[in-house]
Design goal:
Layout (H helix, E strand, L loop, with lengths): L1 H34 L1 E5 L2 H11 L3 E5 L14 H9 L2 E4 L8 H6 L7 E4 L20 H18 L4 H26 L6 E6 L3 H7 L2 E6 L9 H13 L4 E4 L5 H11 L2 E4 L12 H16 L1
InterPro entries: AdhesinB (IPR006129), Bact_metal-bind_prot9 (IPR050492), Lipoprotein_PsaA-like (IPR006128), ZnuA-like (IPR006127)
Protein name: Zinc ABC transporter substrate-binding protein
Organism: Clostridium rhizosphaerae
């Protein structure tokens, strides 16, 4: 009986101790989170870059929900409140988020550090500037530097931490660029077909060319004339893969692929987080699929 009572007592003591440790850890984590820099970002690529630089010293909130085209998004009052209460607000710019200027003009937070991540990028202009700068490994370095500078400004005590994370991330971008620059330099065919014209910056990085079913903002169905041009192009250039994206219409890509006897492959615009891949993984996947289609 005595041994049984002692066993119960010891078990109870261990349970209480473990519970106390668990609560202490939770409290420590909560206190740490409360001391972090509050960062609000417009959509997924900005989240990827901010977390790569800020890691566990920032709390990140995303305004545009997963699966939503950022160009078409309209912020709710709760979104505007989140931005107003943040220390740092990061957006891409160049019209990717048409709602930003109006939103920022209504805020009362004079100390808010705003970051137009694409500022200083080497821009591509058609009728307007192409906003898809994050889909270039080279321009991603510009964007992450702008984000790093803002985090240093918001939290100067941790400058070395942000600087090191930026250098580490830049190295990863450089390594991926070098790997695929060598690969793309070996292919003679430089043309591939996408769902919408999001990949001009990626193309410039590697001296390849995209033909797209839809325009850069994936607006509107292509005309019969545009479809005929794409069909003729695909047949003439022996295109074996038609790429499609999650936020652009897959049906048109599928129709074109069927017409020319090609397969359909998914490619990432990274506007939302897909297949649980981070930015580096998504870009590597994109580059490998495009390279395979050109061989």
């Amino acid at each position: 009986m005595f041994k049984k009572l002692m066993s119960i007592f010891i078990l109870a003591a261990v349970t209480v101790s473990l519970s106390a440790c668990s609560n202490q850890k939770a409290s420590t984590a909560e206190a740490k989170a409360n001391n972090n820099i509050d960062v609000v970002v417009s959509f997924n690529p900005m989240k990827e870059f901010a977390e790569a630089i800020g890691k566990d010293k920032i709390n990140v909130k995303v305004v545009v929900p997963e699966g939503t085209e950022p160009h078409d998004f309209e912020p709710k009052p709760r979104d505007m409140e989140s931005i107003s209460k943040a220390k740092v607000f990061i957006y891409n710019g160049l019209g990717a988020e048409t709602w930003v200027d109006k939103t920022l003009s209504t805020l009362n937070n004079k100390s808010l550090i705003t970051v137009e991540a694409s500022k200083g990028a080497d821009l591509i202009k058609t009728t307007d500037y192409d906003p898809h700068t994050w889909l270039s490994l080279k321009e991603a370095k510009v964007e992450t530097k702008n984000i790093k500078d803002a985090l240093v400004k918001a939290d100067p005590d941790n400058k070395d931490f942000y600087e090191k994370n930026y250098e580490d991330y830049s190295k990863k971008l450089d390594e991926l660029y070098s790997e695929y620059k060598a690969k793309f330099d070996t292919v003679k065919n430089k043309n591939f077909v996408t769902g919408h014209a999001a990949f001009a910056y990626l193309c410039r990085d590697f001296s390849i060319e995209q033909k797209s079913v839809e325009d850069m903002f994936a607006e509107g169905e292509p005309t019969p004339q545009k479809m005929k041009e794409l069909t003729d192009f695909a047949k003439t250039n022996n295109i074996k893969t038609i790429f499609m994206e999650e936020l652009a219409s897959p049906k048109v890509s599928e129709t074109l692929a069927k017409e020319v006897g090609a397969k359909v492959e998914k490619i990432y615009t990274i506007e939302s987080k897909e297949d649980n891949k981070d930015y580096i993984q998504s870009m590597k996947d994109n580059l490998e699929k495009i390279y395979d289609s050109l061989k």
